[in-house]
């Protein structure tokens, strides 16, 4: 098992900057997810870790070993591609054995019986016992995914790399395979990097999530951290639902006071530790739908008043969409509650649950001294002053 350290990685394709300034430590035995919209650089980063691409600059370490310039077969990683990349007319056994036949163990080729034993173990691990003689094209999508997983695992990799492994499966199979991946990952305690664009999938599967946008990692943390303490507006918006209200800071303290366009002052809490907010600074107040309540929880609660535009009854809750001036807002209320479109609604947001975020995106985090996203751990840190 290895710990993966990515240090200030940059990869371009001609004019396109696919990923830049990526500095992360992916802990031994953990499942870390690269999450972000299509085109944000997830596959590029995964391929850099696998060795299919060499970065323009930056370094990759597996434990203390600098693997930045090593070819893929010298990194001992197992990779599952989005389209499985199996040979449809070969048997399941042959597909799985393929990687082993190329590989050498202590300088020698694997013997036939050693290969057979390992293929059998890998089939058991992914619960496909007895299907080894089948041709891949005779298998369902879920079974093919299991073969791809077995093929990645049969070489006993130090690192497992999965690129959107569930995206070709229907909803029910997706959940089943997701749980299988977690089971296998925990059983082997293998350091795993998992790519997805699906925030729900990322939250359900990950020890840590790296939220990416336009090639940059915007935040790296546990699912709880990124949901409860988003570090950028993009992260708050991409993970879960949020109402955003623009405003200007009027006073600083444990809580920040923010004047919003209707003249009201909203009090909230910064989510970024160490960010130097200033009076007069343009910010956004972000509120999760479940943090807007029908009654006060404390005299300090912010009162939010708006006009209901639509309600959706979802059984377990009532989603209420409303407008505060021009701003579209949403709340998640008890299912018993009833209210009609066009009516005024008063809701209460505890100060602790109003997240105050700077408007500068990931660049704003550079103002935080020693911010981990811009702090390389192994080489000398490059001071950033943007
Ligand atoms: N081989 C390539 N040649 C040119 N551009 C590429 C190549 N691979 C990726 N890109 C570009 O790099 C950016 C990131 O792509 P990618 O890593 O595939 O994103 P994701 O996996 O998040 O969808 C995109 O703008 C994409 O068009
Ligand atoms: Mg991709």
Précis, in short:
This protein has 386 residues and is α+β, with helices and mostly antiparallel strands. It has helices at 42-50, 92-102, 112-125, 141-153, 171-188, 199-205, 223-228, 233-238; strands at 4-13, 16-26, 31-35, 57-62, 65-66, 77-80, 104-105, 108-109, 159-163, 191-196, 208-213, 216-221, 243-251, 256-259, 265-270, 282-287, 302-313, 318-324, 327-333, 344-349, 355-358. The chain folds into two domains: 4-228, P-loop containing nucleotide triphosphate hydrolases (Rossmann fold); 233-290 and 301-367, no CATH class.
Walkthrough of the structure:
- This protein folds into two domains: 4-228, P-loop containing nucleotide triphosphate hydrolases (Rossmann fold), CATH 3.40.50; 233-290 and 301-367, no CATH class.
- Helix content is 22%, strand content 33%.
- The chain has eight helices and 21 strands.
- The longest helix has 18 residues, at 171-188.
- Bound molecules: adenosine-5'-diphosphate and magnesium ion (MG).
- Magnesium ion binds at residues 42-43.
Defining traits:
386 residues; alpha+beta; Rossmann fold; 2 domains; six-stranded mixed sheet; 21 strands; elongated; binds adenosine-5'-diphosphate; binds magnesium ion
SSE inventory with pairings:
Layout: E1 4-13, E2 16-26, E3 31-35, H1 42-50, E4 57-62, E5 65-66, E6 77-80, H2 92-102, E7 104-105, E8 108-109, H3 112-125, H4 141-153, E9 159-163, H5 171-188, E10 191-196, H6 199-205, E11 208-213, E12 216-221, H7 223-228, H8 233-238, E13 243-251, E14 256-259, E15 265-270, E16 282-287, E17 302-313, E18 318-324, E19 327-333, E20 344-349, E21 355-358
Parallel strand pairs: 3-10, 3-11, 6-9, 9-10, 15-21
Antiparallel strand pairs: 1-2, 1-4, 4-5, 7-8, 11-12, 13-14, 13-16, 14-15, 16-21, 17-18, 17-20, 18-19
Helix pairs in contact: 2-3, 2-4, 3-4
């Amino acid at each position: 098992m290895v710990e993966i350290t990515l240090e200030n990685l940059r990869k371009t394709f001609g004019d396109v900057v696919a990923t830049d300034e990526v500095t992360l430590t992916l802990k031994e035995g953990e499942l870390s997810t690269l999450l972000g919209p299509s085109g944000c650089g997830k596959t590029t980063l995964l391929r850099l870790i696998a060795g299919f691409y060499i970065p323009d600059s930056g370094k990759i370490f597996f434990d203390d070993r600098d693997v930045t310039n090593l070819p893929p077969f010298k990194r001992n990683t197992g990779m599952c591609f989005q389209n499985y990349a199996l040979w449809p007319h070969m048997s399941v056994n042959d597909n799985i054995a393929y990687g082993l036949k190329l590989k050498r163990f202590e300088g020698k080729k694997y013997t036939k019986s050693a290969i057979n034993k390992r293929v059998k173990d890998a089939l058991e691990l992914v619960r496909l016992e007895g299907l080894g003689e089948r041709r891949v094209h005779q298998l369902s999508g879920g079974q093919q995914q299991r073969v791809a997983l077995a093929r990645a695992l049969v070489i006993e990799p130090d690192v497992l790399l999965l690129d959107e492994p569930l995206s070709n499966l229907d909803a029910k199979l997706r959940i089943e395979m997701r749980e299988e991946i977690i089971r296998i990952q925990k059983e082997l305690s293998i350091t795993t990097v998992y790519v997805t664009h699906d925030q729900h999938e990322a939250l359900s599967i990950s020890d840590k999530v790296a939220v990416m946008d336009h090639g940059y990692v915007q935040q790296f943390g546990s699912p709880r951290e990124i949901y409860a303490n988003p570090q950028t507006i993009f992260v708050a918006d991409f993970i879960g639902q949020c109402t955003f209200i623009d405003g200007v800071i009027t006073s600083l303290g444990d809580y920040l006071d923010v004047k919003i366009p209707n003249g009201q002052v909203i009090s909230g809490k910064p989510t970024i530790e160490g960010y130097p907010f200033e009076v007069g600074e343009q910010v956004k107040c972000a509120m999760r739908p479940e943090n807007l309540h029908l009654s006060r929880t404390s005299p300090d609660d912010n009162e939010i008043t708006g006009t209901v535009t639509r309600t959706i009854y979802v059984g377990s809750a009532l989603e209420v969409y409303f407008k505060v001036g021009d701003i579209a807002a949403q709340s998640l209320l008890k299912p018993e509650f009833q209210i009609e479109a066009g009516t005024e609604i008063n809701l209460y947001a505890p100060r602790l649950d109003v997240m105050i975020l700077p408007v500068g995106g990931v660049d704003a985090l550079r103002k935080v001294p020693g911010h981990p996203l811009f702090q390389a751990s192994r080489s000398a840190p490059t001071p950033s002053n943007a």
